[in-house]
């Protein structure tokens, strides 16, 4: 069996790695081609080019890269046509992946599977209809998504989210982490996560750093850890150098995938709370039972366009899946350091209200069921 698989950012790479592992379990002679990061490469993929070229978000951010991305889209689609795989699996990154799928469908009959349903329940509902023109089958992360995709004419299976099957650190590992970094007396230990894309780090890191000043005044024993994504680790190190409290940056570069992932999970479990860019990191924090504050902003024009299209009042996945609003968010015009600081202080004063919502989220995403990567692999194979 030959699979062409594409991911364009770290969260997609994680999904792709789990799916590939599941396919290898069910079809031992499967072979892979395509584009992915460290986790997919650890499962046997030789990426055709560096996945970080695709980690661009926001309308104004894409424009300067448009010609290069257009060439990459054409090159990737041609590679699929030339290799004639049994299935092409694209993972999230719709601006790139769905354009590749359109070219592939125009030139042949390759079956197309897209992993991660578009958030039509949040904004731009017509995306499902357009997507159905080029995608045969959708693998959904959330249990409420299949009806939206099926109504548009696609097969769709809820497969859960791989975060629910990730191993959680022991109390001994957490204690060693705190001692290793001199944080055993931290009061509290705060994670700060400024994003995994360059644009996110550039916009958010200064604001998150400024938000720490009043938090430090209220909690002088506060310690900060910043787990950096490999594609932006150098940028993160530079960005935090001017913060009022220079944090410990966990740099995954030079580490193998499993070691880096384990170190990140231990940091998440060791922290009392987190200040994080909106995104799938919210689910990782929930899996570690770490309460959070969310913040996010885009380029001004991108922000205005997205705001007009939004159909939901929250961007945090814990709030969405649990149908609560327990995670405080500072989005767009409200992504200001003074407001963020107040949100962090309020959270540190009472960490408990979020925990029930986080537990509900993990249960709804399949925490008690089969490994989501294996479940996704079964879904792909069942419909070939």
TrEMBL record:
Catalytic reaction list: a lipid X + a UDP-2-N,3-O-bis[(3R)-3-hydroxyacyl]-alpha-D-glucosamine = a lipid A disaccharide + UDP + H(+)
Coiled coil segments of this chain: none
The record's Pfam families line, in alphabetical order, gives: LpxB (PF02684)
Q: What class of enzyme is it?
A: transferase
Does the keyword Glycosyltransferase belong to this entry? yes
Please provide, alphabetically and separated by semicolons, the GO molecular function terms listed in this UniProt record.
Answer: lipid-A-disaccharide synthase activity
EC number(s): the record gives 2.4.1.182
Q: Which UniProt keywords apply?
A: Glycosyltransferase, Lipid A biosynthesis, Lipid biosynthesis, Lipid metabolism, Transferase
So what family is this one in? Belongs to the LpxB family.
Role summary: Condensation of UDP-2,3-diacylglucosamine and 2,3-diacylglucosamine-1-phosphate to form lipid A disaccharide, a precursor of lipid A, a phosphorylated glycolipid that anchors the lipopolysaccharide to the outer membrane of the cell.
NCBIfam families according to UniProt: lpxB
Recorded protein name is Lipid-A-disaccharide synthase
Task: Give the gene name.
Answer: lpxB
């Amino acid at each position: 069996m030959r699979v062409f698989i594409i991911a364009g950012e770290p969260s997609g790479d994680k999904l792709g790695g789990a799916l590939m592992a599941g396919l290898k379990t069910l079809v031992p002679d499967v072979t892979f081609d395509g584009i992915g990061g460290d986790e997919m490469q650890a499962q046997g993929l030789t990426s055709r080019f560096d996945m970080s070229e695709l980690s661009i978000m926001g309308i104004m951010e894409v424009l300067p890269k448009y010609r290069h991305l257009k060439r990459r889209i054409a090159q990737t689609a041609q590679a699929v046509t030339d290799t004639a795989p049994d299935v092409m699996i694209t993972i999230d990154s719709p601006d790139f992946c769905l354009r590749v799928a359109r070219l592939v469908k125009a030139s042949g009959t390759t079956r197309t599977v897209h992993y991660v349903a578009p958030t039509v329940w949040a904004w731009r509902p017509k995306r499902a209809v357009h997507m159905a023109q080029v995608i045969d089958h959708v693998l959904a992360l959330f249990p409420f998504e299949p009806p939206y995709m099926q109504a548009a004419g696609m097969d769709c299976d809820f497969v859960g989210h791989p975060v629910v099957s990730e191993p959680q650190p022991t109390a001994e590992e957490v204690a060693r982490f705190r001692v290793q970094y001199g944080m055993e007396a931290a009061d509290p230990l705060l994670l700060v996560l400024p994003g995994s894309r360059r644009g996110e780090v550039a916009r958010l890191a200064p604001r998150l750093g400024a938000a720490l000043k009043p938090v430090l005044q209220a909690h002088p024993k506060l310690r900060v850890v910043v787990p950096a994504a490999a594609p932006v680790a150098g940028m993160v190190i530079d960005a935090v150098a001017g913060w009022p409290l220079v944090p410990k940056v966990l740099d995954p570069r030079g580490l193998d995938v499993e070691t880096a992932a384990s170190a990140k999970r231990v940091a998440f479990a060791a922290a009392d709370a987190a200040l994080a860019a909106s995104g799938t990191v919210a689910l990782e924090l929930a899996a570690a039972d770490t309460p959070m504050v969310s913040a996010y902003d885009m380029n001004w024009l991108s922000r205005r366009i997205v705001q007009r299209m939004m159909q939901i009042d929250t961007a945090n996945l814990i709030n969405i899946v649990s149908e609560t609003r327990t995670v405080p968010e500072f989005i767009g015009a409200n992504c200001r350091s003074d407001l963020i600081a107040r949100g962090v202080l309020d959270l540190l004063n009472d960490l408990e209200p979020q925990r029930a919502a986080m537990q509900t989220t993990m249960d709804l995403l399949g925490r008690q069921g089969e490994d989501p990567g294996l479940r996704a692999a079964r879904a792909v194979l069942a419909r070939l």
